[in-house]
C-alpha cells in the first residue's frame, strides 16, 4: 500500500460517503480539496479541525463554467495537482421539495420519465465525464495519478437478475462504459494513470435510507467502514488496474 502523503480531490464531499472519505483522508495525513455543490457546515468544521490540510470549494463542476474551474485551479496552483481524485457524488432518488415531487427508482417500464432519466445520467455519468475532462488538462504524459468513480453493482449488465431501477442502472452502466473507454485513451496519453470504478457496498447514508428495510443483516455498512475499504483499494491501485470495476474488497467485478 502506498503510504506517501497525497493530494486528494473529493467531489461530493458533503454527502454521506463523500464526507466519510474526506474525514478518513484527513486522518491519514493527506491534503484534501473537498468539493460540494452547496455550502457545508461539516466541511467548514473540518477546516477548523485540520487547519491548512483541507480546502472546501462550493461549485458544481458539471456546469463546466469558469467559476467552477477557477476555484479548484487556484488551489491546485498553490498545492499541486491532485494525486488521487474521487467522485463520490451521485443520485438514486429525490425527496419531496417545494419545486418537485418525490422520485424513486422505477420498478416498471411505465414509470420511466425523460426528466428523471436525464437527471440520473447527469448526476451519475456526466459528472465523472466533466471531472475527467478537467483532469485531462492538468497532467504531463508521465504523471502518475488515479481517478476513482463510485459505481454500483446494479450497473453491471451481467449481474442484473432482478430488473427494475431503470434510470439508476442505466446511468451506472453508462458510467462503467465511460471508465472503460477512457482508460483506453488515457493508456496512450497518460500511461502511468489509473481510472477505475468501485462498488462500495450498501452504505448507511441518505442515498440508501428508503431501501434499508430490504437489506440483509450485515450487508449495510457504516460510511466510515466503506471509506476505509475504498481507501485500501485506491491505495493499492497501479496503472495496470486502469479500466477495471472493483468490489470494495479489492476483487474485480464483471461489467
UniProtKB/TrEMBL annotation:
Official protein name in the record: SDR family NAD(P)-dependent oxidoreductase
SUPFAM superfamilies named among the record's database cross-references: NAD(P)-binding Rossmann-fold domains
InterPro entries: Fungal_SecMetab_SDRs, NAD(P)-bd_dom_sf, SDR_fam
Organism: Photobacterium rosenbergii
Amino acid at each position: 500500500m502506498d503510504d506517501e502523503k497525497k493530494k486528494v480531490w473529493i467531489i461530493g464531499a458533503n454527502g454521506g460517503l463523500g464526507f466519510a472519505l474526506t474525514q478518513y483522508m484527513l486522518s491519514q495525513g493527506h491534503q484534501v480539496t473537498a468539493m460540494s455543490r452547496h455550502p457545508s457546515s461539516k466541511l467548514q468544521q473540518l477546516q477548523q479541525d485540520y487547519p491548512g490540510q483541507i480546502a472546501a470549494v462550493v461549485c458544481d463542476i458539471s456546469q463546466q463554467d469558469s467559476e467552477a474551474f477557477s476555484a479548484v485551479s487556484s488551489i491546485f496552483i498553490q498545492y499541486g495537482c491532485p494525486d488521487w481524485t474521487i467522485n463520490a457524488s451521485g443520485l438514486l432518488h429525490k425527496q419531496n421539495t417545494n419545486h418537485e415531487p418525490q422520485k424513486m427508482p422505477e420498478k416498471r417500464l411505465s414509470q420511466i420519465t425523460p426528466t428523471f432519466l436525464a437527471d440520473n445520467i447527469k448526476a451519475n455519468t456526466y459528472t465523472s465525464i466533466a471531472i475527467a475532462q478537467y483532469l485531462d488538462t492538468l497532467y504531463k504524459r508521465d504523471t502518475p495519478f488515479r481517478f476513482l468513480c463510485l459505481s454500483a453493482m446494479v450497473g453491471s449488465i451481467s449481474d442484473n437478475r432482478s430488473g427494475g431501477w431503470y434510470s439508476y442502472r442505466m446511468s451506472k452502466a453508462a458510467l462503467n462504459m465511460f471508465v472503460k473507454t477512457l482508460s483506453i485513451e488515457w493508456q496512450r496519453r497518460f500511461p502511468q494513470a489509473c481510472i477505475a470504478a468501485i462498488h462500495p457496498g450498501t452504505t448507511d447514508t441518505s442515498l440508501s435510507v428508503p431501501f434499508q428495510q430490504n437489506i440483509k443483516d450485515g450487508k449495510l455498512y457504516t460510511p466510515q467502514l466503506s471509506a476505509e475499504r475504498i481507501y485500501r483499494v485506491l491505495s493499492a491501485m497501479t496503472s495496470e488496474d486502469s479500466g477495471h470495476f472493483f468490489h470494495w474488497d479489492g476483487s474485480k467485478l464483471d461489467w
